């Protein structure tokens, strides 16, 4: 915590969101009162060219931050962006696949740093979830957390799904009704 406090407000928010969305809600609740407010000038450019609006949306959605050692790969990022832009006319999914460690996460997160893409195609924000290899209990926790995130503005407080099948059914309905993109 001391290291995070020496960083900027986005680091604290990212840490809070990571706790919240990775199954440590009790710890996140302890930190909730200390979440720094988002500044009112949320569209001003920062030093790296990314607006604080984009940083906030990505942070709230749990999108990984840019690594310290970052190598730009504009052709690959543009290819992902192009596929994401296609979701505007034809809702669906974009799947990025490849060997472990080849940069799928970094490339996809970088594509999402485009303010125009977020504004035009993901106005409600994004929800980042890393699944990887999980046992059934771990997968159920991830699915429960995703259901909770997607239902956050629902007037009905739903109990978490009790099994993977129930979670899949609830997510299917949420995706069709509330989040077709």
From TrEMBL:
GO terms for cellular component: cytosol. Residues 75-178 form the NB-ARC domain. Gene3D superfamilies: P-loop containing nucleotide triphosphate hydrolases. Pfam families: NB-ARC (PF00931). InterPro entries: NB-ARC (IPR002182), P-loop_NTPase (IPR027417). GO terms for molecular function: ADP binding. GO terms for biological process: apoptotic process. This is APAF factor. The lineage of its organism: Eukaryota, Metazoa, Chordata, Craniata, Vertebrata. The gene is Apaf1.
